[in-house]
Amino acid sequence: MPEPPRGLDRCVEVRDARREEFASIGDLRVAAYRADGFLSPASAYEETLRALGTDGDGEILAAVDGERILGTAMLQYWPHGGQVVRAPGEAEIRALAVARDARGRGIGRVLLAALMQRAAVRDVRRLLLLTHPDMRAARHLYAEAGFRRLPARDFQPGSGTTLLAFSLALSHGQSSVDE
After folding, report:
1. Which end of the chain is less crowded, N or C, counting CB atoms within 10 A of the terminal residue's CB?
2. How many helices and strands in the chain, by DSSP H and E?
């Protein structure tokens, strides 16, 4: 795995989430999305957010300090993967969330690096993700990692806000930018 970002505590470990942590991870996701105003208490997306990956249709990672979960993200491979994965060799990053009191420590960066590394090892050629237009910190993180807009894959759930698609081409374990 790449060197941890500057400012990241060396005691933070990124690993596969354990089944007994799934409820806590769901709570962390919901709390993070609510804290930033992206999930209302009445949102139907809450249950989806809590359950993502718990049925085995993806890999859930946890960034932990000892036993405390500081952040999480998941990777879904073809043929699973929300509304953006459309072909073999593609995978989608979903539900990247960092506990509010753990932000600013590089946890999102190290989770994203771990997801990119996993995808490359599993012969994924293209990583995709959808994000809310107002998730500025997330969009900055993705741009820094080399993700580029892919407007052709934007998605509008129901009558909600159009989610922006981003893509990163992976080749030989190295990342390259999509056309």
Report:
1. C
2. 4, 8
Measured between alpha carbons, how far is 63 from 15 in angstroms, rounded to an integer?
7
Cβ burial of 129 (10 Å; 0-12, 13-18, 19+) is buried
Tokens (6 digits) for 48: 């989806």
pLDDT per position as a tens digit, 30-75? 999 999 889 988 888 899 999 999 999 899 999 999 989 999 999 9
Residue 128 structure tokens: 């995709």
Phi-psi region of 13 (alpha: psi -120 to 50; beta: other; left: phi over 0): beta
Question: Considering the domain boundaries, does residue 54 fall inside one?
Answer: yes
Q: pTM value?
A: 0.86
Structural domains counted in the chain: 1
Cα 3 from Cα 105, distance rounded (Å): 14
